[in-house]
Amino acid sequence: MAQEREPDLPPAADRTADDADRPIVAFDFDGTLTVRDSYTAFLKWRTPPAAWVLGALRLVPAALAYLIHRDRGRIKADATKVFLAGVSRERLEADAIAFAAQFSRSLLRPDAVAAWKNWRKQQVQLIIVTASPEEVVAPFARGLAADGLLGTHLAYDDRDRVSGAFGSANCRGPEKVERLRATYGPDVRLKAAYGDTSGDTEMLAIAEEPYFRVFSGRP
């Protein structure tokens, strides 16, 4: 399996002492900063209509199984295998950049972006913590000048193509806190956190200022 490569954002190892002194404000991405799920929108955007329909039919068994196991990570992995398996990392990252350039204005909530910009005026680190693959969210994070991005990792084969599986746990629920602690230390301090689903509960629980479903703006 090819070695994972992080998106072009500051890794924890590159943080300065000043960074460590700045508390973190963590934003969920899908449904919080955006009006809908960005990964589904991305997959549909880059897939021809006929292939999208055929892919959706292939996912029917996975959708039925989801009614029993309720594991969003499993059905998202199934969709990744159907729609992205075999795609090169270079092509995927280029597609993600094009997708963000085309849809950032129609996906991002204006009131969420306003809150993000207000926090930017303070001495904090702005971090996106998302269940979506980092490769898809990275162009949005760069556009927002995020200080960091924590998301689900895709797995790649030895030819640097998407294998159709995840290279990490789905970054949702307790995994969001695990990733924050692994990156920023076991005593990570969240000045504030924003989320919109049960997948953000644990992250909100460790924040001094938890905000749940406070954004409703639409582009």
Spell out the key features of this protein:
two-stranded antiparallel sheet, disordered N terminus, alpha/beta, five-stranded parallel β-sheet, 219 residues, Rossmann fold, single chain, 10 helices
Q: How is the largest sheet built, in terms of strand order? A: 3-2-1-6-7
Strand content: 15-25%
Number of domains: 1
Uncertain segments of ≥5 residues (pLDDT<50)?
1-7
Q: How many strand units?
A: 7
State the fourth-level CATH superfamily: HAD superfamily/HAD-like
CATH-defined topology: Rossmann fold
CATH uppermost class: Alpha Beta
**Averaging pLDDT over every residue, what do you get?**
90
Q: Which architecture per CATH?
A: 3-Layer(aba) Sandwich
Cα Rg: 17 Å
Number of helices: 10
Helix content: 40-55%
Major beta sheet summary = 5 strands, parallel
SSE run: HEHHHHHHEHEEEHEHE
User: Termini, distance in Å?
Assistant: 40 Å
Principal-axes shape call:
globular
Indicate the structural class.
alpha/beta
Task: State the gist of this model.
The N and C termini lie far apart (40 Å).
Structure commentary:
The protein is α/β, with parallel strands linked by helices and 219 residues long. The protein has one domain: 3-Layer(aba) Sandwich (Rossmann fold). It has 10 helices and 7 strands. It has helices at residues 17-21, 38-46, 49-58, 60-69, 72-84, 89-107, 110-120, 134-143, 174-184, 201-205, and strands at residues 24-27, 125-133, 148-152, 154-156, 162-166, 190-195, 207-212. The chain has a 5-stranded parallel beta sheet with strand order 3-2-1-6-7. Strand 6, helix 10 (201-205) and strand 7 form a beta-alpha-beta unit. The model is unreliable at 1-7 (pLDDT under 50).
